[in-house]
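@here heads up, posting the sequence + SMILES for the flavin-adenine dinucleotide run so it's all in one place. Ping me if the SMILES looks off, I pulled it from an old spreadsheet.
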Amino acid sequence: MDFDFSDVQQSLQDSVKRFCEREYPFEKRQALLRTEAGFDRAHWATFAELGWLGAGLAEEVGGFGGGPIENAIILEQLARALVVAPFLSSAVIATQAIARLALPEQRDKLLSPLLDGTSIAALAHGETAQHAFAPDLAAKATKTKAGYRLDGRKVFVLGGQAADVFLVSARDGAGESLFAVPAHTPGVERVNYHAVDGRRVSDLTLRGVEVEASALIGAGGDAADAIDYALDYGVIGLCAEAVGAMDAALWITRDYLKTRKQFGVTLNTFQALQHRMADMLVETELARSMLYRGIAALALENVLERRRGVSAAKAQIGEAGFFVGAQAVQLHGGIGVTEEYIVGHYLKRLALVRGLFGSSDQHLARFAECAAGRNEEEAAGLRDFRPAPGLRRRRTRRR
Amino acid sequence: MEFDLSEADLAFRRDKRAWIRANLPADIAERGRRGFHATRSDVEIWTRLLNAQGWAAPAWPAEYGGTAWTPLQRYLFQLELRAAGAPVQDQSAMELVGPVLYTFGSDAQKRAYLPKILNAETFWCQGFSEPNAGSDLASLRTRAVLDGDCYVVTGQKTWTSDAQRADMMFALVRTDPEARPQAGISFLLIDMQAPGVRVRPIYTIDEGRSVNEVFLDDVRVPCKNLVGEANKGWSYAKFLLTNERAMSAETAHTRADLSSLKRFAAEKLADPLFAAKVSRLEIDLMALEYAVLRVISAEAAAQDAVASVLKLRGAELRQRVAELAVEALGAAGLAVNPDPTGHDATDHPAPRPPVPAYAHGWLARAMFRRATTIYGGSNEIQRNIIAKAVLGL
Ligand SMILES: Cc1cc2nc3c(=O)[nH]c(=O)nc-3n(C[C@H](O)[C@H](O)[C@H](O)COP(=O)(O)OP(=O)(O)OC[C@H]3O[C@@H](n4cnc5c(N)ncnc54)[C@H](O)[C@@H]3O)c2cc1C
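bot reply: prediction finished. Complex structure tokens:
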């Protein structure tokens, strides 16, 4: 076990930090968020140049040999600077879904425009505001002469506004299939709106959308596991964002307490506030520990064990993140609830993390379900932290 | 970063598990699983079995009889010990005074005490707290006055765990009443059989006995029992208390408790509300386990920040797991259930209730563990430490 960054990981982190300092000071961010796109495509080109868009992808599928750790490093730093870009939705979730599902001959065509930044993708899967995992899909794919016709509705498509291509899930006979649908295909209607943290999301309506047979990703009817996997990846990405936001909010609040004076003294002299800060630090450090536990779980071959570890991380970090964000606001007093001041924006990011891709309670329930019937004796302690052999090999080769 | 256990560590764990299962006497394991404080004789038998392997105090340097195991391997060993129901060894000796002795003690002290600790021949207790010196330990008043080749010690210690079974006490005493509180304290080793030492039990809300008052009336302690230099005792105590904090996450205990809870409460886990509580606890434990691993694998960034988190959260989890077990037991969890060996019971034990064997000890644990957030630096004191030392507030 080794919790320290490798040199390569350290320089990745440094490069994200440098980008954020240069391109994303808070005022500039606020101005960017007021634009319609809420995001600067030139930044995306930089991400591509710096290799971030393939940072979490194994070499076998055209990436740079990284994995969830590399994605977490990037997302944590982006969240510290409150960056709003479709990184999680395109470079993590959509990219992982394709890498997992696409047949070898489909892969390159689908992935290379994503990795070189010329195209942005978004997974369009959820269909109701309440869905968490494995919704019972109503969207359906009908075979036509030339390919497929897609009909259905998708809600809260993360990164939908910037997307050039949607990965649309639909019922296809007995199974679920995933289709790559260019955003401007006739019959795709997109309604864009803002998520709580400024991220652009979309609802999609697909009416008689005709796509070619080559739009199908994978062999057909086999997409459910890959989507599940990609969403687990996304959950851990969210957790990494939360840890970045928590850590930033914690230390900004700490600095504020040392300067703000009331009753003739700086606020940091009040023990009630010191103890609240201590609790915030406890939650932040445990969240970081849990993030690592979640990353380890992503690599597990046993699907139940993977889900169990991912849901544990989400349930824990979602709540801890909201606590830290809310207390950071509280300890600032009135300035904490203003748009012009940074700390409230961390709370918004943490609110998104808590609610997206399943609530804390839903993840708690999924954790309990996965735990039922588990061999405790075998799994107790550390036994279940072993990743699948394939992934092990890949990770060591990179070194 | 690599979150995986190496093949060598997995093999280590398998070996140790097999050895413990083969060598831990069944009756001792049975008593260990009930969760009462271990009897001296169980600790003696088990410690000697371990010592024959060279494993009695794995964390000690090899030259003093420890092992060359990595911190991760020591943690794996702990997990296996707790899972098997092995009795908790003499922690005051192994984890508190032992390291002080091999770090600051004289050669004569090392020779005299360390081998007997490893072989469970000498049992120890910790004489720090006093009636008026709890969290504010430096205000302690027990006096030690030099008289020829002896210190004459007078005062009172309290909350002294296991004093009733101890041969020796390591104590903080005031040797310079004029100096600043921290600067006038010395670290003395006191023979519990010496004239003037009197032990009185304090019964606790678990209806058990593990803590005591220790009265010291003109106890003559040879000067060779002074550890390090006179009036430097506070720095040795701080060293010791840091060790105490680091071991206090107690995740191996909580993990073992949770496993047995899930075993006996398997039916009750069908209730989604109860399952959610157990899941919540397990998730918090998973986070803490990884925090422990960050510290013991010496992640640079974790050392300051995380070490101080362990005691705080670890103590709370020990309480929560016992409370959940009591809840799961229903009425059987509310029946007073004294230690059947009598060892950990008061002098007025309640009759034994007709409850299933798996119910034994849980109520006592739930009650006694209210102390986990009080001893070893209360959770409020831990928050003070985090605020000052980590956050710089
Ligand atoms: C079961 C048990 C076993 C023990 N074993 C031993 C032993 O073997 N050897 C030994 O020497 N001692 C032992 N102790 C003593 C233990 O270390 C003390 O109880 C502890 O230091 C707290 O001191 P106190 O009980 O006097 O409480 P106090 O210090 O009086 O504290 C009372 C309350 O005030 C809070 N408080 C105190 N100061 C502050 C502050 N500055 N800021 C905020 N809150 C504060 C505390 O957190 C607590 O909630 C044991 C205690 C127990 C309960």
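MO: Residues 380-399 of chain A have pLDDT under 50 and may be disordered.
MO: One more: Chain A touches chain B through 52 residues (CB under 8 Å).
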